[in-house]
Design brief:
By secondary structure, this protein is an alpha/beta fold. The protein folds into 2 domains: 24-102 and 113-144 and 236-270, D-Maltodextrin-Binding Protein, domain 2; 148-233 and 278-322, Bacterial extracellular solute-binding protein, family 7 (D-Maltodextrin-Binding Protein, domain 2, 3-Layer(aba) Sandwich). The protein has 13 helices and 11 strands. The strands form 3 sheets. Strands 2-1-3-10-4 form a 5-stranded mixed beta sheet, with helices on both faces. The protein has a 4-stranded mixed beta sheet with strand order 8-5-9-11. Helix 2 runs antiparallel to helix 10 (250-284). The longest helix has 35 residues, at 250-284. The termini are far apart. Bound molecules: beta-D-glucopyranuronic acid (BDP).
């Protein structure tokens, strides 16, 4: 009898412990270089609202936007060690951590946004997200960032030769340095949180990005020409710390996965509206936009970059290209 009581007590204590653990409150900190109103930030906030309502406030997300926590490379490092639970970054800075992601960072690898969605939503996208675990990250989903084109203070870029002598800022990944060099410019890696000043002080003459980023971060104030080369279509990604994830209950992990899937769809919707608006705004704020250019010479000039960095993953790249 005494033994039975002890066993029952132990079992109920364990059950109590487990439910107390499952019920513990958690504020998930997530960083972003963009601020309020930007699609990636608003989508993560929406994900937080979903979690909040599903768990009666037990799981919530606090977004630290506008580069409060620094650049994307540092954010990823913080997530890897578990000092930060989540971050939303460009796949551009993920390549140096999980090499296969560089297949998405090659110039002119995606034909259109739809092609990119079909790749990231399908087997290839899921497989790559799973590979993030070896870098201490749990891949939760992709987001749209449109396409990236050159902008600079000096002149319109109509052909690769127009990049000659221009220092063009790129994200911190050797692929992008060579990409700009292959077209005739000087690729210069600079962290995003240092870019405005780098443009202002002439450390670089230009950069490359999508219209919403140029508008939101007021880069038009320190440049003047936007040329629609659309040489990169780098998706965004949001990741969770594997260190933290492994300590969470399977139920909470599932809730996060479910909210992530809805967050992806939300961002796409917000992105489409934001991109259209930002394109119109570029002209309003005085940027000279040249949209009518022949992409062929840019595609040709970057061929060696696809060969060099894509060589190792030629099978993966063939698979990407075969996706409709
Ligand atoms: C923006 C991305 C952001 C990158 C930034 C960059 O949304 O994640 O940090 O480009 O160029 O389009 O660094």
């Amino acid at each position: 009898m005494k033994r039975l009581v002890v066993i029952l007590l132990t079992v109920s204590l364990l059950a109590f412990g487990a439910s107390a653990m499952a019920a513990s409150k958690m504020v998930i900190k997530s960083s972003d270089v963009h601020g309020d109103g930007y699609p990636t930030v608003e989508a993560i906030k929406y994900m937080g609202e979903l979690l909040d309502s599903w768990t009666n406030g037990r799981l919530t997300i606090q977004v630290y936007g506008s580069m409060q926590l620094g650049g994307e490379k540092e954010a990823l490092e913080q997530v890897q060690v578990g000092a930060l639970e989540m971050t939303r970054v460009s796949v551009g800075v993920v390549g140096p951590i999980v090499d296969e992601f560089n297949a998405f960072n090659l110039p002119f690898v995606f034909r259109s946004s739809q092609h990119m969605y079909n790749v990231t939503d399908g087997e290839i996208g899921t497989d790559l997200l799973n590979q993030l675990e070896k870098g201490g990250l749990i891949g939760l989903g992709y987001m749209d960032a449109g396409s990236r084109s050159f902008y600079n203070k000096e002149r319109p870029i109509q052909q690769p030769a127009d990049l000659k002598g221009l220092k063009i800022r790129v994200m911190q990944n050797p692929i992008f340095v060579e990409m700009v060099n292959s077209m005739g410019g000087n690729g210069t890696p600079v962290a995003f949180n240092e870019l405005y000043t780098a443009l202002q002080t002439g450390v670089v003459d230009g950069a490359e990005n999508n219209p919403p980023t140029i508008i939101e971060h007021k880069h038009y104030e320190v440049t003047g020409y936007y040329s629609l080369t659309q040489h990169l279509m780098v998706p965004e990604i949001f990741v969770f710390s594997k260190k933290v994830w492994d300590k969470m209950s399977p139920m909470d992990q599932q809730l996060i996965r479910k909210a992530s899937a809805l967050c992806v769809l939300k961002e796409r919707e917000l992105w489409a509206a934001k991109e259209e608006k930002a394109f119109a705004e570029l002209k309003k704020v005085g940027m000279k936009v040249n949209g009518d250019l022949n992409k062929e010479p840019f595609i040709k000039a970057t061929e060696p970059v696809r060969e060099k960095f894509g060589g190792k993953y030629s099978e993966l790249i063939k698979k990407i290209q075969a996706v409709k």
